[in-house]
Amino acid sequence: MDQTLVNSKALERFSQLSLNEMKAFARFSTSPYHSSNKRLAKMVGYLTYLSRRGKLSSVTKKKLFSEVFGKEALFQEGRINLLLTQMVSLMEEFLVFESFKNDDFQYQKRKLKIFEERQWDSAFFKLADNLKQDLDQQHETQWNLLEKFHLNWQIFYHHGTDKYQKDLEVFKSSQQYITLFFLWQSMTFAVEAKNRSKVLGEEHDLGYLNDFMEYFREEIDRSPVLSFYRKLLELFETDSIFLLKELINEVRYILPALDKELQQNCLVTLLNMAARKYRNGFNYFKKALYELYREGVGRKLFLENGRINDIIFTNIVSIASANHAYNWVNRFMREHNSFLGAKVKVNAMGLSRGYYYFHRAVELKRRSDWMKVLDHLNTTQFSGINYRTRARSLLIRAYYEYYLDIEENLSFVLDQITAFEQQLRRKKSVLGQRAVAFQNFCRETGKLANMKFKKKNLQQIVEYRESLKNMVPLFSKEWLIEKAGEIVEKSHRPL
Fold first, then answer.
1. Last residue of a domain, one of 267, 301, 335
2. 297: domain range?
3. What pLDDT was estimated at residue 354?
4. Which residues of 90-129 are buried (b: 16+ CB within 10 A; e: fewer)?
5. Is the domain of 228 the same as that of 173?
6. What is the pLDDT of residues 5-40, one digit of tens each?
7. Judging by beta carbons within 10 Å of its beta carbon (0-12, 13-18, 19+), is residue 156 exposed, middle or buried?
8. What is the DSSP string of 413-471?
């Protein structure tokens, strides 16, 4: 049987190129300076042709061999495999070449190094001055500070520099750049450490950094990004709604003036922090997450080389649906599904529709909506263990929400949870730490299911709900906290 190349590393990497990149790669492959293999160039051209017509995922080795070697040639799998391997190597060379061509600063830096090595002194100092001016005109970033430091150092150690006149000036400016770089790195690390503290199992001590930030308060106030990060660190400690709204407004009105990479870094960092807060039961962060995702979608900050990450895609749909923004979700899925990679598109769209149906059913509480959720999740064929487990956990939540109105359905829901636990045990070596998060989800969902129909002490349920916030790793933590809260609210015994 002639297999498609859908799982081929070469085809997977080729499909990640944008259409413009594919066209440029096809031209690159025909250049005798880079490759003299005409069959390789022919294969790249044919794959580009298929991609333009949306047929890339259906190509087979035999069909590819026939197009490259001729219809009369006897099929030899080894020859087409060798060409595919050569294509991967040529593609890597192409991407490096394109990165230099598209990044003028790095290209000029390389020229500066050549001028220095060949002792073309006048050309070196002229280009160095131009690079310094370019850096001074750019937004201040970690990269910018480090490049300034390296450039100053390179000028200082050049044999043509007057050390007696230049040394103090260069040392002072280099010290300033490297100190600010360290400050930037420290604040970035602190925010990441705070975001991951529950996963890491320990809180990050900010004592030294607080002193450092106070000493450089003026420098931080001058930088929109460092000021943003300082407020983020404060939000970790205070959970202030006012500060949260202030940061969202900065994402909307201040950060757009920065370059795309800086906007992405700030937005993703705030999203991660808001997601952590939401998972720990701070429900007002749910709306903030939707507003931030919507802002990022509107400014195309989640698109990289014409692609959107499938995890980000499903998260956007899940959060927007949880906020009942169904019209916006439908438009997002319709307009952005083409940006998903061919390999993950079916899975991502299947799970996204599952989230959409689930949240609609939770809100509307109609039997027809619940039937749509259950039918979709039970009939959609998800591939890959990660998507199958995420879909199965959503199905467990749907069983809990729909069937546990009456106690007679309790055993059915518990049986479904047990079946999922057995599946997780079989796949534990593949899932790793995620298996523990899903197993904890199953155990706690089972506890909540039993709590709904057993006589309970209200104080114990309240304490149990609080204990969920500190449990790691735990999948769908925010949902479990919400269900525990519902049991508390329905209890007739006052605290």
1. 301
2. 138-301
3. 97
4. bbeebeeeeeeeeeeeeeebeebeebbeeeeeeebbebbe
5. yes
6. 656 788 888 988 888 899 999 999 998 888 888 999
7. middle
8. HHHHHHHHHHHHHHTHHHHTHHHHHHHHHHHHHHHHHHHTTS---HHHHHHHHHHHHT-
- Specify the pLDDT at position 174: 66
The answer to whether the beta carbons of residues 69 and 39 sit under 8 Å apart is: yes
Tokens 């990679």 map to which residue? Answer: 341
SS (H, E, C) 68-82: HHCCCCCCCHHHHHH
Cα–Cα distances in Å, from 149 out to 153, 154, 226, 346?
6, 9, 19, 47
Residues constituting the chain: 495
Do 262 and 204 share a structural domain? yes
- Do residues 458 and 490 touch, judged by C-beta distance below 8 A? no
Place of tokens 């962060």: 285
Given a contact cutoff of 8 angstroms between Cβ atoms, the answer to whether 125 and 160 are in contact is yes
In a domain? residue 315? no
In a domain, 44, yes or no: yes
Tell me what pLDDT residue 1 has.
Answer: 47
Residue 423 is assigned to a structural domain of this protein = yes
In the predicted model, residues of the chain with pLDDT beneath 70 are: 1-7, 157, 161-175, 196-208, 455, 492-495
Query: How many domains is the chain partitioned into structurally?
Result: 3
The reply to whether 149 and 288 lie within a common domain is yes
Cα–Cα distance measured from residue 87 to residue 44, given in angstroms and rounded to the nearest whole number? 8
In a domain, 38, yes or no: yes
Is 187 in the same domain as 97?
no
d(CA 441, CA 448): 11
- CB neighbours of residue 38 within 10 Å: 12
Domain boundary among 102, 123, 149: 102
The pTM is what? 0.71
Are 160 and 265 part of one and the same domain? yes
What pLDDT digit, counting tens, does each position of 222-255 carry?
888 888 988 988 888 887 888 999 999 999 988 8
